[in-house]
Design a protein that fits this description.
5-stranded parallel sheet; 3-stranded antiparallel sheet; ATP binding; 10% strand; globular; Rossmann fold; heme; Cyt_c-like_dom; metal-binding; Arc Repressor Mutant, subunit A
């Protein structure tokens, strides 16, 4: 098969040629956009799921839908070592520009509030290079969104942005990737702001994406967050959608898979979108001709597994310290002993301690560090799981 015409695209956040299995989420979001633009009450949205299920791809697709409706949009990626102020200011700056408000003075006022909100982090004695204002010519508006209390400031900021959007009969969408990495104060402020906006009927929504424990992070910050957001679990694809993700791009290149090849591909990928793209690319490059057969998949599987071992699993494993790697391997072994088919390897922390022959308390530093690095998550008290599907299987294959 011609590698130049290979349609498959494994990559972090890279949109696949066929966005299969997400029609329900896209259709529901179109309803949200219309309701908010018409002043109807609607909740902000949170997407959760493991690594490699396409959360970022779907987040970008939802943002594109908002842009097509004429909304102002901005996107940011949360980081545990970064305050919300600057990245959110950049996102809202873009959203205000996209809105295209007909009154320059009104738009400049809101841009000045955004500038004031961002610069509050720098402090009065900050050097010029530390004062954020890329592209904003409007002067900072003093006394608005600059109190230093992130909760007060964020409510004021989004209220002003929402008012600007309401003036032109449109909405503003703030898209936050890796939302679980927001600091506790920023999470609390974002929840409070969403609560205020929904009560006032302003056309601003937040769309967040994060790991499976994100709902617990939000709930721990504000108890009402359970009712504040609409939560959608993004999981692996059903068989028909997984087949479509392979068949539709191939058909565009006048190629096809045999039914047996599709069976073999689903057995190998288990419907995880990133795995589908990785296997699809390897199979296409190594298959001699169309139709692609089950034998072609078998020949290409080792190449796909090598790529996943280096780029998907290995890159994450390399981020761990020796003590953390011991903990990860113990998690994998504990899951295997439990004979659990769970692809994320959910295990009790006490079982990990048994495998390592140590007291659970002595393992807390390694566990907490892995949680912060986003390699594992805790969906319920006393249990942990990998954020990457089949990570345990990968670790056991390396031993």
């Amino acid at each position: 098969m011609d590698p130049i015409r290979n349609p498959y695209a494994p990559g972090a956040g890279q949109r696949p040629p066929e966005l299969a299995g997400r029609d329900e989420q896209l259709a529901a979001f179109d309803v949200v956009l219309e309701r908010v633009a018409r002043g109807r009450p609607e909740r902000s949205l949170v997407l959760t799921g493991l690594r490699g299920v396409g959360k970022t791809v779907l987040l970008n697709a939802l943002r594109s839908a908002a842009v097509r409706k004429g909304w102002g949009t901005g996107k940011l990626e949360a980081r545990p070592d970064q305050s919300l102020r600057r990245p959110l200011s950049s996102a809202l700056h873009q959203a205000v520009r996209e809105l295209g408000h007909p009154e320059p003075e009104e738009a400049d006022h809101v841009l000045g509030v955004i500038r004031s909100f961002a610069q509050r982090d720098a402090g009065a004695d900050a050097k010029l290079r530390e004062r954020w204002s890329p592209g904003i010519d409007a002067p900072a508006v003093r006394g608005r969104a600059d109190s230093g209390d992130i909760e007060i400031d964020l409510v004021e900021l989004l209220t002003d942005v929402g008012g600007l959007a309401a003036d032109v009969g449109k909405g503003v969408g703030v898209f936050v990737d890796e939302m679980q990495d927001l600091g506790p104060a920023d999470v609390s402020a974002l929840c409070a702001a969403c609560h205020e906006l929904s009560q006032n009927g302003l056309p601003v929504i937040v769309v967040g994406a994060g790991l499976p424990h994100l709902p617990a992070v939000l709930s721990a910050s504000k108890s009402y967050s359970e009712r504040l957001f609409s939560y959608q679990r993004i999981d692996r694809l059903a068989r028909d959608a997984a087949d479509r993700a392979l068949v539709a791009p191939a058909a565009e290149e006048e190629a096809e898979f045999t039914p047996e090849a599709l069976d073999t591909m689903y057995d190998a990928t288990r419907g995880y979108p990133y795995f589908i793209q990785a296997y699809g690319r390897s199979v296409w490059d190594l298959a001699p001709r169309s139709p692609i057969t089950a034998d072609d998949v078998a020949v290409a599987a080792p190449e796909a597994e090598r790529e996943l071992a280096v780029g998907f699993f290995g890159s994450r494993y390399e981020r761990a310290t020796p003590a953390e790697r011991d903990y990860l391997r113990a998690m994998a072994d504990a899951a295997a002993m439990a004979d659990d088919e769970d692809p994320v390897g959910s295990v009790a922390t006490s079982d990990v301690a048994v495998v390592l022959g140590k007291k659970p308390q002595s393992l807390s530093p390694a566990r907490d560090s892995l949680l912060k690095k986003g390699l594992i998550f805790s969906g319920e008290r006393g249990r942990i799981a990998f954020t990457v599907p089949h990570f345990g299987r990968y670790l056991r294959s390396q031993s």
